[in-house]
Amino acid sequence: GTWKSERIIASRQGPHLRLEGGGTGILNFCANNYLGLSSHPEVIRAAVEALEKFGAGLSSVRFICGTQSIHKDLEEKIARFHQREDAILYASCFDANAGIFEALLTPEDAVLSDELNHASIIDGIRLCKANKYRYKHMDMQDLEAKLQDAQKHRLRLVATDGAFSMDGDIAPLKEICQLAQKYDALVFIDECHATGFLGPNGRGTDELLGVMDKVTIINSTLGKALGGAAGGYTTGPKPLIDLLRQRSRPYLFSNSLPPAVVGCASKALDLLMESNAIAQSMAAKTQRFRSKMTAAGFTISGKDHPICPVMLGDARLAAVMAEDMLNRGIYVIGFSYPVVPKGKARIRVQISAVHSDEDIDRCVEAFTEVGRKHGALP
Ligand code: PLP
């Protein structure tokens, strides 16, 4: 039940899809298109304009001859959006996570990482020579014990996902920042599943939890809520960003972001800075799905996040139920080991601002039917 196959989409990304070899009008509940900007007409227009004006690509890394005015403008906009001093672009957030730890930390330092952090954080930490501590998921007692042990090192960095992508739960950033203050540590958050829609103005988990001035470093993606094309970034203090431009290997040794991609992300940020209406509309849709599914008898992990994991336990059950949901016109995906721990298979549903109430109700009805058929519901 763990073999993964890919479904082929024959239309744009959006709440309604056409799949190759049949299925039209498929309701899509598994993209990270949280704000529905992936196919937003203004985002597409901005990409076309950037493509025409600045070309297909730079055929160069940034420091040789790959920096255009739009790259600098986007970095400035990202920093302004997050209320940070500066930002640096990468081809992906995977690259941003791969590049930061090695550039920042030495063998004299320590990094303390939540055990359920994203694979790219884990890989980034593997690449650095700092002393490594892995604390139990969101367990502040364990983090404190590890911080005490790490006092012997020169510098301490606590690294956590802001919102965890497999469980839809949100890191206790207030408590993490308090501990970081007490034990003189820096805080790093990965905001891939928060940027653009968590917090009153969509700034992320640091805004949601009131610690924008306490979190030192943010890594996030342009490939999810912010237009969905591709790209990632680090934003934080200017000296840190200056250091990354000198030392971060995925930045130094990989091509610049293509202009069309820069155009998409830049327009997505403009839309979000003009109004918080899209971000707000998603919260109500998430609430509708979570409460109706819970009432139907399902266990939904996490809280108030548009990632709504329907917990099933068995890998094969998750795969078979997802397949049967597609037979009913609902595209969802089962997740099993090694993406999630053994015995914790689930179907991860993701809500988007562009789902209608009717779309959500259709999804809940299909889950209820399929859940009864396969014995996941009584
Ligand atoms: N961090 C988290 C928490 C993610 O979910 C992802 C994407 O799956 C990444 C990093 C990598 O982002 P990107 O797709 O920009 O490489």
Describe this structure in words.
The chain is of the alpha/beta class and 378 residues long. Helix content is 41%, strand content 16%. The protein has helices at 41-54, 62-65, 69-82, 93-104, 119-126, 140-149, 173-182, 205-208, 238-247, 249-252, 259-274, 277-296, 315-327, 357-373; strands spanning 16-17, 26-28, 86-90, 110-114, 131-135, 156-161, 185-190, 217-221, 232-236, 307-313, 330-331, 333-335, 345-350. The strands form three sheets. Strands 3-9-8-7-6-4-5 form a seven-stranded mixed β-sheet, sandwiched between helices. Strands 1-2-11 form a three-stranded mixed β-sheet. A three-stranded antiparallel β-sheet has the order 10-13-12, with helices on one face. Helix 7 links the parallel strand 6 (156-161) and strand 7. Helix 3 (69-82) packs parallel to helix 11, helix 4 (93-104) packs across helix 9 (238-247) and helix 12 (277-296) runs parallel beside helix 14. The protein starts with 15 loop residues before the first strand and ends in a 5-residue tail after the last helix. The relative contact order is 0.17. Bound molecules: pyridoxal-5'-phosphate. Pyridoxal-5'-phosphate binds at residues 92-94, 97, 118, 120, 161, 165, 190, 192-193, 221, 223, 232. It catalyses: glycine + acetyl-CoA = (2S)-2-amino-3-oxobutanoate + CoA. Its cofactor is pyridoxal 5'-phosphate. This is 2-amino-3-ketobutyrate coenzyme A ligase, mitochondrial.
